[in-house]
Amino acid sequence: MNRRLKLGVLMATLLSACALVQAQSTEWPTRPVRVIVPYPAGGGVDILARAVAQRLQERWQQPVTVDNRPGANTLVGTEMVARATDGHTLLVTTDATFTINPHLYNRLPYDFERDFAPISRMVAFSQLFVANAALPANTLQELIALARKQPGQLSYASYGAGSQPQLATEMLKQKAGVFILHIPYRGIPQAVSAVVAGEIALTWAGIPSARPHLQSKRMKALAYGGKTRHPAFPDVPTVGELGYPEVDANVWVGLFAPASLPTAVLQRIEREVAGILRESAFKEREIDGKGYELVGGNGQELARHIRQELASRAGPIKYSGAKVE
After folding, report:
1. Answer CATH for 128-224 from 1.10.760.10, 3.40.190.10, 3.40.50.300, 1.10.3720.10
2. What's the pLDDT tens digit per position in 213-223?
3. d(CA 236, CA 207)
4. CATH code for 31-124+250-320?
């Protein structure tokens, strides 16, 4: 009798726990959700985050707002999410936050394993190496020849020491044996604007940021960071084709939450986002139309990918000489 009683109590406890998990998942969100983007407004990451946020708002019937908090190679916005305790704050950021920054800083204000719950590696994209339209070089080979003739007179823009554009250009400089001056800006939109205006000669930019200026002939593309040429720019060779396969100009964008968010809620967000990314209209307009590659996947896959990429980037970053004090 006691055995049956204990079994009944155990079953009731399990059912109660399952009901609680289900309630957590179905009732969340109970208030507005804030999505922190640690980059300035107007860039590719921000555009994607806003598109996803809009669709989540429609599904959840709660406001989902994007809050741009750029600064310190994404550290400012990322730390805000790591310290968030309201249960309704998410992070959309790039690979640099968790696979590059740990190699650049002696100490970070957050710990990936302790403070974050990965949700989805949503999209990936490769960047274009773009130049001001008036630059007297129309190919990467011509640019390198020009830089050798005019050492230190050409400049390139990035969004800070250790950012993807800075690492890619420093690797290119090392391999080509040239000196091009680095000028940091707040973000890719500002860097692209500086190139268009002729303040800076060069930068790396994703297709959403670069395409309007390439179409208007205010910028030109010298190379593409992908393994194969992009169908939208079939005449632009890859850096690998041009003899610089070590140059890493590839980016992915992921969704994260504070580690304190319940598993049931994380799983619901993962399902909702996966559904949005697979919607034919959304995919055509916001992913394929922006030059992204759909990745998706779950939080475990994202965590595993981050650990692998963190290890593989140690050598190239050390070789580039990039460091932030």
Report:
1. 3.40.190.10
2. 999 999 999 99
3. 12
4. 3.40.190.150
- Residue boundaries of the structural domains of the chain: 31-124+250-320, 128-224
Give yes or no on whether 31-124+250-320 and 128-224 have one common fold: yes
Q: Please state, in angstroms and rounded to a whole number, the distance separating the CA atoms of residues 61 and 82.
A: 25
Main-chain dihedrals φ then ψ at residue 276, nearest 5 degrees: -65, -45
Which of 220, 225, 224 is closest to 236 using CA atoms? Answer: 224
Among all chains, which residue has been given the structure tokens 């994703």? 206
266 closest CA partner among 24, 64, 54, 30: 24
pTM of the model: 0.84
Digit-coded pLDDT (tens) for 110-151: 999 999 999 999 999 999 999 999 999 999 999 999 999 999
Q: Which residue has the tokens 């049956």?
A: 4
Per residue in 240-271, pLDDT tens? 999 999 998 999 999 999 999 999 999 999 99
pLDDT, average across residues 188-205: 94
Is beta strand 64-68 parallel, antiparallel or unpaired with respect to 116-126?
A: unpaired
Side-chain half-sphere of 14: how many Cα atoms within 13 Å? 6
Looking at this protein, which amino acid is placed at residue 239? V
Q: Distance between CA 199 and CA 191 in Å, rounded?
A: 9
